[in-house]
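Quick illustration, no need to memorize.
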Amino acid sequence: MKPGVVVDASSVTMNQDYISRRGDASCYQLLYAGAYAESITVTEIHLTGNADEALSSAHDTLIFVRAGQATLNIDGALGKREKALDAGSAALVLSGDTYTWSNGSELKAVEISIPDRSGPFAQRMSRDADGYTPFVHQGSFDKGKATGNREFEILYSSDNGSAGATMFVGFIPPSGAPLHYHLYDEVCHIVSGGGELEIEGELQPLLAGSTFVVSPRLLHSVRNTRNEDLWILGTFRPPGSPAAAFYPDGRPAPGYNGID
């Protein structure tokens, strides 16, 4: 996937090289490493039934459930963990651990791999992490303020075990937004609602399941064109504040105080 190009599971079906199976799970590779070293990758899984065991090798795996439900089993150095997850649930599988989905019912979830500190680039992009929390749920944390009247809720950061990335859900009311950029690499996944993405004057539609990459300093704008909130899952590295945005002239956007 190229930066700024919107894809989803339906667009991936046009290239069977990016579709695989893990037991009953259909796995759609939305973002793959390609020519990049130590790259973030994104897989969307659709599951009714049971998925074969997967190994989180040389990377942490951040997971978010967009729809449906299933039980996630994690087995690793810190022991075995199991929890029934539904829409809004998130999980962190540490590097070297294995995980298995079972009892899936129309599950749609994204698995986002973040390279661990075994690589030199990831070492520089990581922070020391404390308080490993294998499972969390959206709605359990305080919200922060971003640009305009937008809000966000951090699900994972270095505060609860994620050394390599921050994962959050952003809440965008019906509105437009000026072009802006970030200094971090970010993967964006539409959880609910819809709108459009503007890059270089081109508009691309956004629907639930739409996924795109924003590379550092890429000017972009996500706009909510509906009469309901647009919920967007953002996962970025290095870890920091989701409010860290800048306008084209370099001015920090309102809501960012320069502190991560």
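The domain at 9-127 is CATH 2.60.120.10 (Jelly Rolls).
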